[in-house]
Amino acid sequence: MIKINYKILIVLAIVFWTVACTPLKKEVKQIKPNIILILADDAGYADFGFMGSDEIPTPHLDNLAKDGIIFTDAHVSATVCSPSRAGLLTGRYQQQFGHECNIPPHNLGMDITEVTIGDVMKSAGYKTAVFGKWHLGESAPFHPNKRGFDEFWGFLEGHRSYFYGSDNDIPGNPHEIQHNGKHVKFDGYLTDELGNRTIEFITKNRKNPFFIFLSFNAVHTPMQARKDVLDKFKDHPRKELAAMTWSMDEAVGKVVARLKAEGLYKNTLIFFLSDNGGAANNQSSCLPLKGWKGNKFEGGHRVPYLVVWPEKLEGGKRYDELTSALDIFATSMAAAGITETSGKPLDGVNLIPHLTGDNSSAPHNQLFWRKEGMAATRENNWKLIRLDNYGYRLYNLEDDLGETLDHSIENKEQFNKMVQSLEHWESNLTEPWWREAKDWNQVTFEIHKALMENREPNYKSPEEMKSYLNQ
Ligand code: CA
């Protein structure tokens, strides 16, 4: 006769009951997608595996790219940090509200009458957060918590140390790390911490749709990396950049892993891009493009760009049409089912029908750039650059991606058409509310002039200009 051990039966019953009742983190069924906008800072067009680099390894982003769409002709609306972010967060050319130049310290900031993507997503019931660099104003009216974001863990200025404990970390300093206005300390490396704060927020809000702006300061200067990662790249010709990019890639990997663990990945729309081209001072590469951060050649504003939404967009593709970071606002709204904003008309478009194939035309035939005396426009593959007090160049990117051959004389009709469309666009802009520093304007004038003449600039920074002029 079989002897029944009731104790074992009871234990088995408890185990069975516990397993049956433990909620498995299945894919969360929620109609509105989560949205994560991941921004790198000063990263070069070429410096990611998914953009073709065999020098700067980015395994997590490369994996993410397999589920998404890689854009090859995507542009930010400015070639420096603050105006690019103003365009990104409003979906509008920032020169319409005076945000043409990098923001100077103290009491200036992004026009408070502009509606941000945070405002719109929050009104639609999203939990909203910024983790990282803000650079849209340091004083109270411009604080992220007042611009549509429930949570802010980051810093208000344009750059800072990647470690805690420098002069930055004094309460009230705009470079300090703060959480919703309160000074915070952090351990370890800032890029890792931004990833950690993001995954905490994801888990906390797994049952609400959320909009996260993960705004890395990597790979902006100072060139600081974790020692163990630097050791990994000790023989690399660009070891600081490689190590900083590696940590950013790891943080993105951590975010994606958490989305998967929470069952949120498939219905999350992820954008990844850089806020402007690679800088002259951070070892980055914009090849095969000409130019870099701060100038109107393609290397200044054409950026690495990735869009992923596994549930709605077929991945493993490339998209070669002209697109803009201004599209992120309209695309996010459409994804969330929001049909209108209380703000002014958007300059970006909803990319989704273009990516699903429902709309086979290009999202944009024209894009425009201007920062004080330097302006440019794209019309399909044509590119016009204007340098005030110097002149114009017209390039055809179809067979001259490196912008070397001027067509302004032989293609007079195209040249005139683009000069006029640039001037027409400018007629709707306001005067810049603040100006770039005078010495930087002199430097960028020399850089543009040199690149238009297909030669090396005599100087690339105010310091270099000083020693060149004193020779
Ligand atoms: Ca930047």
Defining key terms:
single chain, 471 residues, alpha/beta, Alkaline Phosphatase, subunit A, Arylsulfatase, C-terminal domain, 2 domains, ten-stranded mixed beta sheet, four-stranded antiparallel beta sheet, 13 helices, 16 strands, 30% helix, binds calcium ion
- Broad structural category: alpha/beta
Name the beta content range.
15-25%
Give the SSE string.
HEHEEHHEEEEHEHHEHEEEHHEEEEHHH
Looking at CATH, which topology of the largest domain would you report?
Answer: Alkaline Phosphatase, subunit A
Strand order of the largest sheet: 7-6-5-4-8-1-9-10-2-11
Taken together, the total number of domains comes to 2
Helix percentage range: 25-40%
H/I helix tally: 13
- Taking pLDDT < 50 over at least 5 consecutive residues as the criterion, the unreliable ranges are 18-24
Q: Give the N-terminus to C-terminus distance in angstroms.
A: 105 Å
Q: In the CATH hierarchy, what is the architecture of the largest domain at level 2?
A: 3-Layer(aba) Sandwich
Major sheet size, sense and barrel closure: 10 strands, mixed
Compact overview of the structure:
With 471 residues, the chain is an alpha/beta fold.
Q: Could you explain the architecture of this structure?
A:
The chain is α/β, with parallel strands linked by helices and 471 residues long. It folds into two domains: 325 residues, 3-Layer(aba) Sandwich (Alkaline Phosphatase, subunit A), CATH 3.40.720.10; 104 residues, Arylsulfatase, C-terminal domain (2-Layer Sandwich). Helix content is 30%, strand content 16%. The protein has 13 helices and 16 strands. The strands form three sheets. A ten-stranded mixed sheet has the order 7-6-5-4-8-1-9-10-2-11, sandwiched between helices. Strands 13-14-15-16 form a four-stranded antiparallel sheet, with helices on both faces. Helix 2 crosses helix 7 and helix 5 packs parallel to helix 7. The longest helix has 23 residues. The chain is globular. About 1% of the residues have low confidence. The site of calcium ion has 6 residues, from loops.
